[in-house]
Specification:
single chain, 703 residues, alpha/beta, Chitobiase, domain 2, TIM Barrel, Alpha-d-glucuronidase, C-terminal Domain, 8-stranded parallel barrel, 6-stranded mixed beta sheet, 36% helix, binds beta-D-glucopyranuronic acid
Length: 703
């Protein structure tokens, strides 16, 4: 890989994300110049058509060095934004549009007059918006404007970001600076960055943003905060992004002066209905509420002896007349409940299937514990067939190295979406359980903050990008998404692209290996969740202790969730339940999730379990070392500033990967008393040193 000109690309700070328009090389530039001389938009213009026309103008202006003019009619060499109303003949030439819904689009080069034009066609302006971004992306990726042929529509109607942002501007599990929402200055001072946030969301198909933390403050429903949310909604609207709020179940009491928050109380019901009406007056297209109830100390209907369905329905009834939705989280587990934590959400919610009002959507994390580097898919997918579900993923890497470690999460979400639930029959994947419902979706816990590069590191931007692309197309491949992102972010040198994709595709598995290999989970240190803490055993709630999850002792390691243990395996359909009940047929990557096995258990590699575990930890560290070497070779091919940023992050990741390996293996060896496995690097420090480490003021603790 030689630097072609010997001239380093200019420094970049990452602010532009993947919307980083750069002039194309000469030949494609000439082709685009000839194909995009002018733009024609439907009339009358709306804020949304203005947004897409503006974006196309900016992008094409840079890509080919000349901004397109405005066309008066469809002519050769123009880009026509067409709806069946504005351009019936051109729209007809784009094939049937009915199945595209309001958000789908067609982008194709079609004969117009004596030449050809680029037609972006959709039934609704929202489709034009997404089609416009698809066109820009295709051109950035090198598509020939003379032969475009794209057609796409999202299978999920809700494609949301969940910001865990507090009203004091701290961000729970946020590793990219303060909250991007400058609440104090809103609504009168509206940072230009909000529009860039919305543009970025729109460019990957994200159509809603929950503004605040699921551990919600009641005040977000005060008149002052509704006005702030309304100001953001005004900025987001032209970009097709609706605003949602997380609400606190006890708000009627805390904010509304009610004597109770009992959902069966008439006064409480009236309060929620009035609040919904007040919000919709300020934000006519308000999306709805998200609720974390009776979970980790949050108030909820069970405080009043009511079920999750009764609680959810009370709030949903308040929103229904306005057409908005109530998203109710299934992330529940109770300290008083001796059942395996992994089983509690299923226990609680499956019996309620069919009891929720039509505008309730139950929001389920990808796995049954909590966004761990690897979990099996959540057994609620496929088991709640009468209730629309939202798949909740975590973009912010609370458990995968904050924003310091390179971990591309596309493969993890792809793995979940493609998991076969076998409910009601084989082939019914998690993605299929979602798309079977008209009003289902995905929610991604945002990794965005006020850092100049948005996400705390350049590579973390890929997780925002990939999340949006997968929520739009649940069947997309994470490798292809990585390749797109690599070109959009680092330019179209194929050697750079391929190296970056290789790094990305290896990265998540590396984290699994050096943190929690072979199905281990929840080994991180307490509270801030930074670094290893497999020895932690003294916290009040049993299921907050890593020792609860790994159960390592002199004889063996792993959580027995088989039918001989907690029985969690039975929450899955056959043949999964049978397959995962037997260590011989359980995939290695989930082995210690479902089984407690002796340290001497023979593994497929021929090693025993202890040796295999150590080897996996070591392999994770070696992969990070390889990522560093690959990145080093890109010096001179990526601008110096971003190259240095990424190098520093990788060096830190390498050190922390070694720390994870060394601390975990030192601890497990202290428990099992076995000899150090041959060929595996011995720990650099002592267990006592690792145990003594403290991290005051680690980020992400929230308010
Ligand atoms: C856990 C986080 C905690 C969140 C919780 C949730 O540690 O900060 O509030 O998930 O999703 O992973 O509600």
């Amino acid at each position: 890989m030689a630097t072609r000109t010997g001239v380093l690309p200019p420094d970049e700070d990452g602010y532009e994300l993947w919307l980083r328009y750069r002039t194309l090389p000469a030949a494609p530039r000439r082709r685009l110049l000839a194909s995009a001389r002018a733009l024609l938009a439907p009339r009358p213009a709306t804020p949304m058509t203005d947004a897409v026309v503006g974006e196309l103008g900016r992008a094409i202006g840079v890509l080919c060095g000349r901004a397109p003019g405005r066309a008066a009619r469809a002519a050769p060499g123009t880009i026509v934004l067409a709806t069946p109303q504005s351009q019936p003949a051109l729209a007809a030439a784009c094939g049937p549009l009915e199945d595209l819904g309001d958000e789908g689009y067609v982008v194709r080069t079609a004969p117009v007059g004596r030449g050809r034009a680029i037609i972006v066609c959709a039934r609704h302006e929202r489709g034009l918006l997404y089609g416009g971004f698809a066109l820009i992306r295709a051109l950035q990726l090198g598509a020939d404007p003379r032969s475009l042929d794209l057609r796409s529509a999202p299978a999920l109607s809700l494609r949301l970001l969940n910001h865990w942002d507090n009203l004091d501007r701290s961000v729970e599990r946020g590793y990219a600076g303060q909250s991007i929402w400058d609440w104090w200055k809103l609504p009168s001072i509206v940072d230009a960055r909000y529009a860039d946030h919305a543009r970025a969301c729109a460019s990957v198909g994200i159509n809603g943003v929950v503004l605040n933390n699921v551990n919600a403050a009641s005040e977000v429903l005060s008149a002052a905060w509704i006005a702030k949310a309304a100001a953001l909604a005004d900025v987001f609207r032209p970009w097709g992004v609706r605003v949602y709020l997380s609400v606190r179940f006890s708000a009627p009491r805390e904010l509304g002066g009610q004597a109770t928050a009992d959902p069966a109380d008439a006064g409480v019901q009236r309060w929620w209905a009035d609040k919904a009406a007040e919000i919709h007056r300020a934000i006519p297209d308000f999306g709805g509420w998200l609720v974390k109830a009776n979970s980790e100390g949050q108030p909820g209907p069970q405080d009043y002896g009511r079920s999750h369905a009764e609680g959810a329905n009370t709030l949903a009834r308040a929103l229904a007349p306005h057409g908005s939705v109530l998203m109710w989280r299934a992330f529940v587990y109770a300290a008083e409940n001796p059942r395996d934590r992994a089983m509690q959400a299923y226990d609680e919610f499956v019996p309620l299937d069919g009891q929720f009002l039509p505008n309730v959507i139950v929001q389920v994390k990808n796995g049954p514990i909590d966004f761990q580097p690897r979990e099996p898919f959540h057994p609620l997918f496929g088991a709640m067939r009468a209730t629309p579900l939202i798949l909740e993923c975590q973009l912010t890497k609370e458990y995968l190295g904050f924003s310091t470690h390179l971990a591309y999460l596309g493969p993890m979400w792809e793995e979940v979406l493609r998991s076969d639930t076998h409910r009601p029959q084989a082939g019914h994947t998690v993605a299929a359980t979602l798309t079977a419902q008209p009003r289902a979706g995905m929610a991604g816990v945002a990794n965005i903050g006020s850092d100049r590069n948005w996400c705390g590191s350049h590579f973390d931007q890929a997780n925002w990008y990939a999340y949006g692309r997968l929520a739009w197309d649940v069947g997309a491949r994470s490798r292809a998404i990585a390749a797109e992102w690599a070109v959009l972010t680092f330019g179209n040198d194929p050697a750079v692209r391929d190296a970056v994709v290789r790094m990305m595709m290896a990265s998540r598995e590396a984290v699994v290996d050096y943190m929690t290999p072979l199905g281990l989970h929840h080994l991180m240190d307490t509270g801030h969740h930074h670094g290893p803490g497999p020895w932690v055993s003294e916290l009040n709630r049993p299921e907050w202790n890593p020792t609860y999850y790994h159960r390592a002792d002199r004889h063996g390691i792993g959580f027995d969730r088989s039918t001989r243990g907690s029985g969690a395996v039975s929450q899955y359909a056959e043949p999964l339940a049978r397959r995962w009940d037997d260590p011989q047929t359980t995939p290695e990557e989930l082995l210690l999730w479902f089984h407690h096995l002796p340290w001497g258990h023979p593994m497929p590699s021929g090693r025993d379990l202890w040796h295999e575990l150590a080897e996996r930890y070591d392999r994770g560290v070696r992969t990070v070392q390889r990522l560093r070497a690959t990145w080093r070779r890109l010096q001179g091919h990526v601008d110096a500033r971003r190259h240095r940023d990424v190098s520093e992050h990788l060096a830190q990741q390498h050190a922390e990967a070694r720390w994870w390996r060394d601390a975990c293996l030192a601890y497990f060896q202290s428990v099992n008393g076995r000899p150090w496995p041959e060929g595996v690097t011995p720990p650099a420090g002592t267990l006592a040193e690792y145990r003594a480490m403290r991290f005051a003021f680690a980020p992400g603790r929230g308010g």
